[in-house]
Write a structure and sequence with these properties.
The complex is a heterodimer of chains A (149) and B (90).
Chain A (H helix, E strand, L loop, with lengths): L1 E4 H14 L5 E7 L7 E5 L9 E2 L2 H13 L2 E10 L8 H6 L6 E6 L11 E8 L2 E5 L1 E4 L6 E3 L2
Parallel strand pairs in A: 1-9, 5-6
Antiparallel strand pairs in A: 2-3, 2-5, 6-7, 7-8, 9-10
Chain B lengths: L1 E5 L13 E5 L3 H11 L3 H5 E2 L2 E2 L3 E5 L2 E2 L15 E6 L2 E2 L1
Parallel strand pairs in B: 1-7
Antiparallel strand pairs in B: 1-2, 3-4, 5-6, 5-7
The chains are: A alpha+beta (149), B alpha+beta (90).
Chain lengths: 149, 90
């Protein structure tokens, strides 16, 4: 289960809409072992592609050094699919290298660059096995509200 | 050349959980052979017949060795090597 602030869900959706039709990608870092996504870090898709994403290699090193300095880890690793559903592709599964992370997929196939429905789903990807998990939206000052699946 | 190597989470099963290990070698390629003697299986995760695997990044200090001489990149005493799997997908 992924527990996440509504503002972070909206930030991922906004990033995905803005970069459509290319895939958008990024990380939400949190304290090591906390499972709490706290710091939203949009990344550049060095592939600038509608079917592929890759963090730039220099950005990747900076990101991991910075997380290390802050005792953080990537709690959420997100990217968008711009023509298909928010489900990990074969490439997503083969390159997934953070077994402790929540892999969040955002699909902009319906909304494109505009407002409109954005599909957001979360998965664990461990040793090639994909497990979908519920997303619990933490509203500030309100009770937790569960959304799909 | 004695260097320090930072190991990513996913490869720490090969280093008994260690985040940083010590290694030795004249080049990155030699270093990976040296590491494999104490951490068997690690090298196989990083290189194939063609060289460094496409989705593994190895940095010498701040430089991706792909932009240097790849596995042939020369090492100096005290260098810091960082291994990071690419964050990528489709």
């Amino acid at each position: 289960m992924l527990t996440i602030a509504r503002a972070h869900l909206e930030a991922m959706a906004a990033h995905a809409r803005a970069d459509h039709p290319d895939e958008a990608c990024g990380v939400i870092a949190g304290p090591v072992g906390s499972d709490r996504p706290e710091r939203f870090i949009p990344m550049v898709n060095a592939a600038r592609s509608p079917t592929f994403y890759e963090f730039d290699s220099a950005d990747l090193l900076r990101l991991y050094r910075e997380m290390d300095d802050h005792d953080e880890e990537p709690v959420v690793i997100y990217h968008s699919h711009t023509a298909t559903e928010a489900y990990p592709s074969r490439t997503d599964i083969s390159y997934a290298s953070e077994p402790a992370a929540h892999y969040v997929l955002v699909s902009t196939r319906e909304c494109g660059n505009d407002e409109g429905p954005v599909e957001i789903r979360s998965y664990r990807i461990v040793d090639g096995a994909v497990t979908e998990e519920p997303i619990i939206v933490a509203e500030t000052g309100e009770a937790l509200a569960a959304v799909g699946p | 050349m004695a260097v320090e190597v930072r190991i990513p989470t996913i490869l720490r099963p090969y280093t008994d959980g260690a985040k940083v290990v010590q290694g030795d070698g004249a080049t990155i390629g030699d270093l990976l052979v040296d590491l494999d003697t104490r951490h068997p299986g690690l090298r196989e995760r990083l290189v194939d017949e063609a060289g460094l695997r496409r989705f593994i990044n190895v940095y010498l200090n701040d430089e991706d060795v792909r932009f240097l001489d790849g596995l042939g990149t020369a090492l100096a005493d005290g260098d810091s090597i960082t291994i990071l799997p690419a964050v990528a997908g489709g």
